From TrEMBL:
Molecular functions (GO terms): acyltransferase activity
Enzyme Commission number, as recorded: 2.3.1.-
Name the UniProt record assigns to this protein: Acyltransferase
Keyword Acyltransferase: yes
Transferase keyword on record: yes
Entry keyword set: Acyltransferase, Transferase
Coiled coil: none
Length: 182
């Protein structure tokens, strides 16, 4: 019985991907958008082949903004990606854990006080062969190079270079992927 439900979910996810393709999203072969995903995309947005957007994720772009997600990548349930009028680039073979908070635009502290409307807006780039753990927060302008692991609950603000495991708030290198400590 459970297997039949899984097949039905996968079928619905493929149909939702086709629906978004009809609405202008470039959708690769075998890509899936599960029920419960809130998706607002601008022109030029793309979901790569065999990539999956799982339940309860939100990708929100406004006029002029968009995203490009490479092949064989996925965003686990509960991700909130506020793209706005910026660009979000995600490479191939990227696994993003549940509860991701990714901001291409966000409030920023101001010298006049926090009650003032100040915003930080910048594109976010995530390379290929990247693993991002559960409940990670990624701030505007962040760049995550190819071959990076980001530990759960980390705060990414800046440039993470390839070949490292990062963790903490803000994210700092913990050890090289080949095993040496920082």
């Amino acid at each position: 019985m459970a297997l039949q439900g899984y097949k039905l979910d996968a079928l619905r996810a493929r149909w939702r991907a086709r629906w978004h393709a009809w609405l202008g999203l470039e959708v690769g072969a075998g890509a899936q958008i599960h029920p419960g995903v809130l998706l607002r995309h601008g022109p030029g947005s793309a979901l790569g082949a065999r990539s999956v957007l799982y339940r309860d994720s939100r990708l929100l772009a406004t006029a002029g903004g968009g995203f490009r997600i490479g092949r064989d990548s996925h965003i686990a349930p509960g991700g909130h990606l506020l793209i706005g009028a910026q660009l979000l680039l995600i490479g191939d073979d990227v696994a993003i854990g549940p509860g991701l908070m990714l901001f291409c635009e966000s409030n920023a502290p101001a010298a006049q006080g926090l009650h003032r409307q100040q915003y930080r807006r910048a594109d976010v780039r995530i390379g290929s062969n990247v693993f991002i753990g559960a409940r990670v927060t990624v701030l505007p302008g962040s760049i995550i190079d190819d071959g990076v692991v980001v530990a759960a609950h980390a705060l990414v603000d800046g440039h993470l270079t390839g070949g490292w495991v990062y963790g903490g708030c803000p994210a700092k290198p913990l050890r090289r992927l080949d095993g040496d400590k920082a």
